[in-house]
Amino acid sequence: MTRAARSLTPFAQGVRDGLPFLAALAPFGLLFGVAATEAGLGFGAAMGFSAGVIAGASQFTAVSLMGDGAPALIVVVTALAVNLRMAMYSAALAPHIGAAPVWKRALAAYVLFDSVYACAAQAYPRHPEWSVRDRMLYFAGAAGPAVPMWLAVTAVGSVLGATIPAWLALDFAAPICFLAMVAPGLRTLPQVAAAVTSVAGALLLAWVPYSLGLLVAAALAMAVGAEVERRWAKA
């Protein structure tokens, strides 16, 4: 670590680490605004969705199913299943920030972007000397720029709608963003096995109605990852 990096406060380090992800978050949010408009949501509904949920993947899943005319129960259950990763993120971060006051943890849960988790999961082990307050300041720094960016680009996408040209290829933003976050974390065989299973399962089950193949792929990935980890631990 450079002397300049050591001189930064935890909050400033969080801002620094979170800023690069905005390059992927911006087109991701634009695309959601467009998708929400095409699914029949007005500007207010689209903004309320983004402000109330702040979870890109599950928001896309929900509006896609709504556009397909899926039953409300399917929309809710599938969106919740996609968002279950947030529970895993929370469990992973609990040892680091679990001692923070309840209201701070509630705010952290609200702004828990995938990118914020990716930053925190790598920064916290590098700084065992940080207090809980320092870790929360880092978290706030990583999340701070992302929240207004997400809301702003959702608004732009909702207003512009289908006028955004197709050659911009905004649909590539989501996979690129997730690859940038997931790839550095694939350090062990169980993690790689789970990732490969989830990708293969999602592709092979893409034909399943209402995107329910994603749920099956996620369950298979968790089962494979757990089994590989069990066998790996015994080896």
From TrEMBL:
Subcellular location per the Swiss-Prot or TrEMBL entry: Cell membrane
Keyword set, alphabetical order: Cell membrane, Membrane, Transmembrane, Transmembrane helix, Transport
Main location: membrane
Source species, domain of life: Bacteria
Residue intervals passing through the bilayer: 18-36, 72-94, 136-160, 167-186, 192-225
InterPro entries found in the cross-reference section: Brnchd-chn_aa_trnsp_permease
Membrane-topology annotation of the record: Multi-pass membrane protein
Family: Belongs to the AzlC family.
Protein name listed in UniProt: AzlC family ABC transporter permease
